[in-house]
Amino acid sequence: SALLLLPVAATAQLTITGIDGELEQNVRSFVSLASEPCDAEPWRVRRRFRSLVEEARKALEPYGYYEPHIDASLGAKDECWEVSLVVDPGEPVRLRNIDIELTGAATRDPEFDDLLQPGTLRSGAVLRHTYYDNFKRALQVRAAERGYVEAIFKDSRLDIWPDEHAADITVRFDSGPRYRMGEIRQDQSVLEPALVSGMMDLKPGAPFDGREIARAYRDLSNSGYFSRIEVVPETDRAEDQAIPIRVSLQPANRIEYTVGVGVSTDTGPRFRAGHRNNRINTKGHRLISDLSVSPVVQGINSEYRIPLRDPRTE
Predict the structure, then answer these.
(1) Ramachandran sector of residue 31 (left: φ over 0; alpha: ψ -120 to 50; beta: rest)
(2) Is residue 108 classed exposed, middle or buried when 0-12, 13-18 and 19+ CB atoms within 10 A define those classes?
(3) Is the pTM of this model over 0.70?
């Protein structure tokens, strides 16, 4: 088959001076003219050029620069248009008043302490919109992980005063009550329910903790009994501040075979075969057998495993 190569239209040159790093990168990715090829219609290039300065201004605002001075010029070279942007970002807007209040049961939860410590949102720091958005998102994620199902922002404002080069932040976050672990419902017929329960540290009535959900998933995955695992908090079915947990499991392959050949200076050529029954019964019993054959050494090794009270370690 033949590969058809099509000519790629050359892209014109956009030169930006006065800024670098992430400021330049954001301006370059934000302005629509940067994507126009050399053979673009002149009217289209001129129309996009007219909005170039305003687009560059908008690209600088998320980084705290609201009063930049921008000069733009449009020209042509080697049968292609080219644009030059000279940017003076000006004085940045800085954070002034930071008013953050946490209410609800989370005020007694030390897992929120690190979020409330002065960090990227501190008085005197250059305003970065992403820091404000990330802080709000972090509060929401932490609340969800810790079982604060009713958490809401009662107020969240980012007030910007470009003339004063200042910005004020107000956040009122009410966590509401912390929910508990509810019923642990198993949707599986792979192993006896008590054995599956022994692989997880999920206790009905205990304070909800997303890390325990993640740990239960890892422990079930590491067991090797299952090919598909779901450990899902069903918050939409929560009652009396208790979140039921659904554990859905699909079996992994019951039988596995392995074969290998090799050469060693001590034993010469050797052959190895293995047989593994990962699930003899619903009690989780396993049988592992290995056969090794060489001119010097022959042997077979078998191991029968029975999980006990804590099947992860016993």
Answers:
(1) beta
(2) exposed
(3) yes
Torsions phi, psi for 310 (to 5 deg): -110, 95
The CA distances from residue 291 to 33, 192, 262, 268, 275, in Å, are: 69, 31, 14, 16, 9
50 in the Ramachandran plot: left (φ > 0), alpha (ψ -120 to 50) or beta? Answer: alpha
Residue 152 scores a pLDDT above 50: yes
Q: Are 206 and 189 in contact (CB under 8 A)?
A: no
Tokens linked to 246: 């659904």
Residue 217 CA to residue 219 CA, distance in Å, equals 6
User: And the tokens for 111?
Assistant: 């897992």
Using CA atoms, how far apart are residues 261 and 272, in angstroms rounded to an integer? 6
Residue with tokens 């090799």, as numbered in its chain: 262
Over residues 133-147, the pLDDT tens digits come to 999 999 999 999 999
Q: Whose CA is closest to 210, among 222, 221, 202? A: 202
CA dist 256 to 218, 273, 276, 290, Å? 22, 11, 5, 12
Strand partners, 63: none
Higher pLDDT, 76 or 220: 220
